[in-house]
Amino acid sequence: MNAQVLWDLLSIPFLPPFRPSKQNSYLNARIPWQNNVHRQWWRDHGMRKNVLSVVLLYSANFQLGYDETLFNSLLALPVWNRTFNDPSGSRLGLMAAYVSFGHMLTVPVIHMLVDNLGRKRAIFLGCIISTTGGFVCTFSRTEFMFNSGRFIIGIGQPISQFGTMCLINELVHPRLRGASSALNMSSFCVGGMATVWIAFFCLRWGNSDWQWRFVTLAQNLAPITLLMGLFVTPESPRWLISQGKHDEALRILAKYHANGNTEDELVQQEFHEIAAHIQQDIDAGNVHWRNLLQSAGNRRRMLVLTLAVSGTLVLGSGIARNYSTIVLKSIGIKDPARITAINGGLGFWFTIWTSAGALSADKVGRRTLYLGSTIGMLLSLCVITGLSALFETHTNNTPIAIGVLVSFFVFTAFHQAGWTALYSLYLIEILPFSIRGKALNWTNFIQASSVLSTNFLDPIALNAIQWKYYLVFIGLEVVYLGLVWLFFVETKGGTIEQASIIFDRGNSKPASPTVSEEHKDLAIPAIQRNSINTNRQKIERLYGRYMSVSSVRGCVRPSSSSWATTMGLESIQFCGSPCGEIVQKTFVHPELAADEVAVKVTHSGLCGTDLHFVTTDMVLGHEAIGIVHSIGSDVSAVKVGDRVGWGYPNWTCGKCEWCLRGEDNYCPNWKIYGLADLEQGGLSSVSVRKEQWLFKIPESMSSEDAAPLMCGGSTVWTPLVNHVKPYHRVGIVGIGGLGHLAIQFAAKMGVEVVVFSATESKRGEALQLGAKEFYLTQNIDDYSALGITKQIDRLIICTSAKLNLGLFYPILNAQAMIFPLTASDGELTVPYFATVRNGLHISGSVIATRFMQKKALEFAARNGVHVIVERFPMTLDGVQAAMARLRDGKMRYRAVLSWNNND
Ligand SMILES: [Zn+2]
Ligand SMILES: [Zn+2]
């Protein structure tokens, strides 16, 4: 353990305690998306199937519950005691602990099985192993064989248990998630109850061996049911997406959450959310053990996880369940039939309270349940302890015995309704997918060691110091109460993805700023990259992965109403870094200022200017389109749900000379991309913009067409609309991101367009886009030899290659204007006298005023200006690939990155 990890561990207590506040509107969030299922799940075909799968998966916990009580029940059977020579004390503790030894053995591998094999295959494996163990137990002749069987069961059980815990949470309809995954714990209680009743039934068989063999045999019923259930249960959509099987995942989500409709809003949203989270996790390489302690959010998760697991098992669960017989005997109830009957009743009692807790988890809230449960347990345990102490001096006092028994029942009710009911629900939902497997490993370890300690220590301690042992638990409950109050976080409402990120709230430090080793060489390096071809295989693999997302039509459409919780303000961002590498970060936007608008980005273009900023620590991208998610109090120009776009300005002063003239694209006080608001950019999932420079996108225009118009399009539009008359001949130099738009704008304005290009192969395309003439300039030093029919009035330079402008002089008309439009450095030189003699103008021009930007969008929509785009996914890989291609000059012609492929 190195110093950093040690420090991380030590620093947990200094985290600020969680304070539930009214501002945390997430607590009151409902799932806001349109969904085509019936409100009552039993009337809905898809939901019924969903519930059936989930109920079948409960078998794993049923088996676990059965096994937990098994030992206690066997203890009550005279034949079993005889067969194994009346085990007691430490030998009894050891026999009971064999299952835990098996559990321990699976700790290192359980996440590998659940993550690599998949949930279903892991469950299958677990069932086969534990069934084997069950048979070994049933037919055992010796204590060794019996213990071995229990050991084997111990290996199989946690595999299927964690597999089903994951699968239930990942499969169930969000509306049923709270209740159904919490009810999973009720099946644990039902299992425990079943053991008791089966044992009670077997008591009739007198002296036959089958008195106990049948009880152990019946244990196999659950894993066998589970095995059958796997045939009708689908694999986890989350796991499938993590394996790149997007189509299958979407089909399953649609089938079980929306009666097969892949276009359903809820399904779309879930799919989008899962894919984004998993991609983020994959890109960040967020899967090392050390990640469990790396961020403040994760450290708190691990602490809460440890408390929740150990609390459930240690805080009297051992007393309540496994050794209720001993407890009953200690207060004078010794008749086997009465003990079994009380145990049976106890199982029923457990089930009621666990179910009650589970069903109220979504209403009352997790944190409240935990707190209430602990307080109730503490108070009733105090009563139990007091009465037990009294009973010691007043033996055979029936009222006191009844008092103890009643408080014992009250104690277990509180324990079941809180800690037990929330066990599988809370553990899963506080964990993001990336660390779920590894964290559950830890859970398994804590679970196994807690069970081991209670199974082994409790009987010995209870035998030795009787009721005084309860004082230990009173102390523990007080400690746990404080810890729960300090660290447990409310997670009710919303989807499992949203619940899992609550722990990172307010943590604006990047949660995962690292680039995974695997993808490092795809980042734009500081040194010149020779060609994207060197990475062809990787790019193809990445593209393959992306294409399988986008090939499902309309699969990840975010819609205006779908981000109705404040959780949406967490943003995934792609940023530059000092070494020139693109890195992915997570950023939580602070509250909106009065004039700010939060936009859920759907598309972002990539512009040559972005290449200049890859070495700056800032969010890249300034040609973005998105849907308004929420607005500040003074915003009136746009409303929630509007589709808007923006370019590189974010704010202008409105007071300077240039703003007053309406030429706000020259405002000296402006805040623009690269100079201000570095934490906001287009290559992100959410960006907060000033209302001022947001533009509504015309309805008929696709977002892919719109994005490049926000910077590239407006750059070529401005000189055309300001300086071109209908009778002008307009020369466009270079066909690329800017040039192919300039040709279209000019041609649609009705002027004669003449294209100059060094690439013959672009001739056809130029003419198709609207050019009248095309001249190949490659290897030509004297442009008067081009054979141009008539001189040029306006020359738009759209290539970033340094040009000798003097070359064009022979073909320019007098008073011609030249507009160099790309952002280049260095000097611009032109022939001195010819410029003077012919009255030539060389003019700068930057983007468009707000007025002209609006007109450019309207013009483009009305006249069908279409951008030729290369599509990239909005992922770390996608951004890196697009940047590499842009840098290599191979983009045809404008990159658009998108979170979906719907437009
Ligand atoms: Zn730009
Ligand atoms: Zn100004």
Automatic annotation (TrEMBL):
**Residue limits of the Major facilitator superfamily (MFS) profile domain?**
53-492
Q: Which cofactor does it need?
A: Zn(2+)
Check the record and name the SMART domains matching this protein: PKS_ER
Major location, coarse class? membrane
Give the membrane topology: Multi-pass membrane protein
Q: Where in the cell is it found?
A: Membrane
Does Aminoacyl-tRNA synthetase count among this protein's keywords?
no
Coiled-coil positions are none
Report one GO cellular component. Answer: membrane
Key words of the record: Membrane, Metal-binding, Oxidoreductase, Transmembrane, Transmembrane helix, Transport, Zinc
Q: Name one GO molecular function term.
A: carbohydrate:proton symporter activity
- PROSITE patterns in the cross-refs: ADH_ZINC, D_2_HYDROXYACID_DH_1, MFS, SUGAR_TRANSPORT_1
Q: Which family does it belong to?
A: Belongs to the major facilitator superfamily. Sugar transporter (TC 2.A.1.1) family.
- The molecule here is called Nadp-dependent alcohol dehydrogenase
Per the UniProt entry, what species is this protein from, by scientific name?
Lentinula edodes (Shiitake mushroom)
